[in-house]
Amino acid sequence: MDIIIKSAPMGFIDREVRYICPVTNTEVTTRRGRNEIMAREGLVDANDIGQTYKHRKAEREEHLRIVNEKPPEELTRAMDSTFKQQQDKFIDSMG
Fold it and tell me: pTM for the full model?
């Protein structure tokens, strides 16, 4: 007696795409059409938001690097003022 074990085929299952795009109000029937509309209209898939977040994080880090290299005058004045206030509080608390 032989035992034959079969498994389901592995791979990507492409589901049917059929909806009305809320931005362009046109029918979308293929993934390619969907991708073209998204690219043309500057839309982002919800599954790609993590990548967008990473991009924004990189921009924020670059902005902080620039500010730390040469802070704007307003920021420098505000920091100096805050430091002075904290220093005065500390000296007053020492009595």
Answer: 0.38
Name the E strands within 24-71: 27-28
pLDDT digits (tens, 9 = 90+) for 71-85: 778 777 888 888 888
Whole-number Å distance between alpha carbons of 8 and 47: 27
Q: Assess whether 52 and 68 both reside in one domain.
A: yes
Structural domain for 34, as ranges: 15-44
Model confidence pLDDT, tens digit, residues 1-16: 677 776 666 655 566 7
Task: Looking at the structure, tell me whether residues 34 and 53 fall in a common domain.
Answer: no
Distance (Å, whole) CA 35 – CA 28: 10
The region, left, alpha or beta by phi > 0 then psi within -120 to 50, assigned to residue 25 is left
